[in-house]
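Changelog-adjacent note: as of this version, every example in the card shows the full chain rather than a window. The one below runs 628 residues end to end.
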Amino acid sequence: MSWNWRRLVGLELENTFTRRALLLGAAQAGGLALLGGRLYQIQVLEAARYAPLADDNRIEVEILPPVRGRIMDRAGTVLAGNEESFYASLRYFRGSDLKQSLELMSHIVPLTDEQRMVYYDKARHQRAGEPLTIARDLTFEQVAAINLNAPQLPGVETGITRRRQYFQGLAAGHLVGHTGRVEQHALDDDPVLKVDGMRVGKAGAELGFDKRLSGQAGSRKFEVDARGRIIRVLEEMEPIAGRDLVLSVDLKLQAAVVDRLSRVGRGALVVLDVRTGEVMAMASIPTYDPAALVERTSAAAWRSVGRQSNGSLVNRAVSGLYPPGSTFKMVTGLAALEAGATHLKEQVECRGSYTLAGQTFRCWKRHGHGACDFHRALTESCDVYFYEMANRIGINAIAGMGRKLGLGQLYACGLPGQKRGLVPDADWKKLRFRSAWLGGETVLAGIGQGYVLTSPLQLAVMTARLATGLAVRPALQRDGTADIPAPQFMPLGIDERWLEAVRAGMIGVVNAEGGTGSNAYLPGGPAVAGKTGTAQVVSNSTRSEDGTGSNDGTRDHALFVSFFPASAPRYAISCVVENGGSGGATAAPVVRDVIELILKDDPALRPMPAVRTAGGRAEDAEPQGGGT
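Full-length structure tokens:
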């Protein structure tokens, strides 16, 4: 009896244990099944989602900035290049003693307490293992000291970077331009722009050809541990250096033009090759030295430069807008001839003033020019003649001719900062002021006053088109050697008879008796064609008796445009001297001196230098496209 009881109790306990084990096993199996299912989901079904996240924790990518291409003049003289510079960076790893590393670094490289705190905060708040530049422009001795003490400086590394270098100072400031830090709003566009010390073009050719000069960034992938320490390099792709850029500008002529123009004050001067459209020289006064801006990086520093520069950062050749004054009379004259509103022999009587709708418009020659035909009116710059022509044809015909000659346009030639200017018409005024165009406004526009605004570059293009009858387009990149055919510009579609009449009048301006541009005459040299201009800055009511303002700030702007040799045009020049007074007295002598410089040493005959391409191979400079 006792034995049966014990046996029954044992069987009951055994059954209970078996049930519990079965339940526990079932629960474990279910848990393992859920875990396995989840692992299968993560590792197989959602591998495309989680694999990159896992790699982000294991793999770091470092951007390697490319070497920026050089900028040279047409003869191969380097205007902008690169110089090597040593730097030190700090990588933060979890558990590392940043303060100690920075303290030891301060004994090698001067770091103030404030600087150390800034670097400490930046390093702690950025991603582990990401380098932070803490010192630039280190000497070789400083680099050696850092490397010698590397065991006591965990996370501190040295490296070599390249800093932009400018060689020609004030001579080519506006043409070459400068580089600067990337604007904050553009950082999300390209990861390369986030690299510490990365610079992009900010002005001049540096900006206009930034893509060509920048090259292609490389990268380095390396594996890191849980603390961000580098274990090994997985992959490295070398950056591709930027391509060299050969400008059409001749440095020797450029430096001489800047020097000559600086002697008469503020202004701009442009020299174009009329056959190719190449910019041979482009001066803007006051100018600036790009080398002085290399190390200025903060927004506050840039604002300070702008305040202290006295306007030197503005390239007046492309951004300066001026009333063209009498240099615009070729536009009005051509428009009148094309419209059939006059003929070359018709004479207009000038008695010193012109009256329209009860309003009097004066000629610059107080007592008048007498009877003037087209040639004499252009040679002696008779205002009354062109008042009459403008009134006959209207503003729309004038505006159409101005645009055909290149005014009021932007040119795709690698020159940033261009302003379109203004060649007004009736529709423009209606949109701008919601009022009708007036006859008196047409009369003023006919002599380049009123609303008309042009840049020196546009005036040079206008002159080149008048000289050739072709739609010349400016180019800043070298287009080819003297042995390569010039670009095939399209004809303007203007009757050659009228173009010849304009050219003859411009030759008379410089060479005929009574011509307003006689100060540009070259004794014994080739005939020069030109046109003076005096752009009014103040109203007649505030002008002094001699026709100028009372001080330099209100004096008229002096202008002169020219092409030469007159018999076979090769160069076109435009010159604007701010508050220079008379164009014939101030701007014409400047152009004459520039022409003499060109005649002494024709820059168009210089050989083509070799340039570095994206692959590092030297080749001739590629043709520069462009259009209006």
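Structural remarks: The first strand starts at residue 59 and ends at 64.
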